[in-house]
Amino acid sequence: MHGDEIREAARRVIDSGWYLQGKENEAFEQHYAEYIGSPYAIGCANGLDALIWIFRAYIELGVMQPGDEVIVPANTYIATILGITENGLKPVLIEPRRETLEIDDELIEAAITPRTKAICIVHLYGRCAMTERIAELCRKHNLKLIEDNAQAHGCRWNGVRTGAIGDAAGHSFYPGKNLGALGDAGAVTTNDPELAAAVRALANYGSQRKYVFKYAGRNSRLDEIQAAILDVKLKYLDEDIKRRQEVAAYYYEHISNPLIELPERLPDAQNVYHLFPILVKELRSEGVKELRDRLHDYLEEKGIGTVIHYPIAPHKQECYARESWNVPQLSLPITEMLADAELSLPISPCMTEEQVAYVVDCVNRFE
Prior knowledge:
- The chain has about 375 residues and is an alpha/beta fold.
- It is built from 11 helices and 14 strands.
- A 7-stranded mixed beta sheet has the order 1-9-8-5-4-2-3, sandwiched between helices. The chain has a 3-stranded antiparallel beta sheet with strand order 12-13-14.
- Helix 1 packs antiparallel against helix 7, helix 2 (about 25-35) packs parallel to helix 7 and helix 3 (about 45-60) crosses helix 6 (about 195-200).
């Protein structure tokens, strides 16, 4: 989509001879900050780096120190947890609500200790995870609110876009996202000028001016071609989201298979439908994972591509098997059930009415 404009943007950068930290970055950062409603946007290499730099910046500024705790949903892509552990911080994993697939805000306060410094919410699947209870807990316990907004560009809560709700947010522009680059790309948004300056420096070797290094940083810069392409696609993001919401509405209104459970339907403002997750129900004769896998294979035979998000929960991954916060291994039954039961149906602004109806028909015929 928008191929001519994207090609023209790439050509403009190539012809300019300026490929890093130039006018395209400045333009995209300004436009993305305006779109999100945040005073500052800092481009970086990818969404994981965005999260890493937020926590690292808080450490450099003395707000956090290694060993401090960050409350985080247990069901998320591993990048959320990696952003915490990369900085020597301790993730405290909280179960989701089955009906919303987002962090259960009623379980958070019991997990808060004197070492807790932040709550990191994840707007998973494009669904808004923010609640009044989370806002209240952050105020009551003086906690930073970090948003993993990798999957929810354009989502809103109480009229404010996700990415501008908390103290800072990490964004991913991986090609498959609602706002996707033609390669890896990411950004941090924040309302804190000190944090913004620290993040920008950390992602540029730790330098705030040439050859002067305040921090021991890394190279994590958004290149000019990706910035130019993202600036083109940003203009059409709301239009693309509207089409995703139309596809999702058809799914909600027409999927009727008793073996399938749909997540609680949110108002459109609170769901940009990066993904459309469904859950299969366990049968006495068949385990939930076996049924889910059979549904996946059945739809594939019908020419319908589906994806499992995510088949192994973070606390079950080998890389975290020996971490002190996961020994003995955590028991998180809702998270583990979601890993076995979830399947994401195709959803895209490019889908035709006929394609959407075909998906529904095939899903409803599954037995």
